[in-house]
Fold this sequence. Notes:
- The chain is of the alpha+beta class.
- The chain has helices at 45-54, 116-124, 141-146, 186-193, 225-230, 266-288, 292-306, 317-320, 342-357, 365-373, 377-382, 434-451, 465-469, 475-485, 494-498, and strands spanning 2-3, 18-19, 25-26, 33-34, 38-40, 60-63, 78-81, 88-93, 105-111, 128-129, 161-170, 177-183, 201-208, 210-211, 214-222, 239-243, 248-256, 313-316, 331-338, 393-398, 421-428, 454-455.
- The chain is built from 15 helices and 22 strands.
- Strands 18-15-17-16-20-21-19-22 form an 8-stranded antiparallel β-sheet, sandwiched between helices. Strands 1-12-11-13-9-8 form a 6-stranded antiparallel β-sheet.
- Strand 3 (25-26) and strand 4 (33-34) form a beta hairpin.
- The protein starts with a strand and ends with a helix.
Amino acid sequence: xxxxxxxxxxxxxxxxxxxxxxxxxxxxxxxxxxxxxxxxxxxxxxxxxxxxxxxxxxxxxxxxxxxxxxxxxxxxxxxxxxxxxxxxxxxxxxxxxxxxxxxxxxxxxxxxxxxxxxxxxxxxxxxxxxxxxxxxxxxxxxxxxxxxxxxxxxxxxxxxxxxxxxxxxxxxxxxxxxxxxxxxxxxxxxxxxxxxxxxxxxxxxxxxxxxxxxxxxxxxxxxxxxxxxxxxxxxxxxxxxxxxxxxxxxxxxxxxxxxxxxxxxxxxxxxxxxxxxxxxxxxxxxxxxxxxxxxxxxxxxxxxxxxxxxxxxxxxxxxxxxxxxxxxxxxxxxxxxxxxxxxxxxxxxxxxxxxxxxxxxxxxxxxxxxxxxxxxxxxxxxxxxxxxxxxxxxxxxxxxxxxxxxxxxxxxxxxxxxxxxxxxxxxxxxxxxxxxxxxxxxxxxxxxxxxxxxxxxxxxxxxxxxxxxxxxxxxxxxxxxxxxxxxxxxxxxxxxxxxx
Length: 500
């Protein structure tokens, strides 16, 4: 970690760049709302340092695109909006390389506030793309990276960060002085890759790139979790869904294509997917989400007719791997379990959601044992016939990451870098979310007790900070780095993030 020359607040003061204060800020999900006393939209690192100098000792949060369901951005004091930090510069570096690990190749230096969709467009002009992307591309690149945004079959985006520039504080001399540091190695890099805004204001990231690639895809049905997982040998980028009320799986089997040629009427497939799934399915869910009878009918009878199976297409990765998920506001929890526990977790999910829909359902012995071991039998009995889940559960394999506290970082007792993870995503379109929180929150607590499940840092979690932190063997190392770069806790708030 190197400290860059600080050209002082006094000798290079820029305009304050504050905007209307006491403006109400809402996140994408609508569940986080607050009014900061001061809100800024800086246009340079010097301006960011000015803000830090002016507000020493106050709580400082950073705003990207607001696509988190946790209060990462919430503050009563200072909010720094990084939208103007959107520069993109492609360079050659020995740090980066292929999609599965650093080995030498191009990197991109990108402003923290740049939207992923804009970054992808800029990279495409150079014949490049990101190694891994999530389902949507509306997030700011820094916000996505530092909360562990991931796709399927590869690492989180965090893993591909090879350097970062951060505005933070220096306590040398007995006084807090704003400074810019550049992190590019060691535990500091592993911390900043998934840092939740705890280390300071990230102004720029350097991220690995890969040559533009195409993805082959086909959709198939399956009956068991193991049937889905076994296909990953041939389709390593696949994601699959547990369909509620039908209790079957449907997979988008995916792998990197042999060449960059669009095939299989890909344009028509893209239009079909947007119209049938991104729009029509979601409209039906939005309209009838409170009707348990219709939801059951939807997934048992109507949904299978929406889906065209066996249609093999090949298209550019950023088209094939994303959805228009941001078109409809929703609320989400996502939990991660190690690969060895994934099948059991899938059984737990099925049993608990079936019981929540109909208390006549008899859970398996292993599910009952898990609930009893967690001492949650009474809570489980209370959810019977109270909640009908109305959205497919997305399941994705994510490779283990070299980070300190990403959801996919090494688990206690696991050999370093050897444990893959499976992410289970639960979404609701109903407001208020009380019934969702009661059922899915209970499921998450059972999974945390039974499997050491981790909750996505950027999504809703019912776990206390203490329970969440206990699953990360390097949490103390992360906290020590936070104290070093943020001596007075201006950017802290991990406990608030992890609580419901």
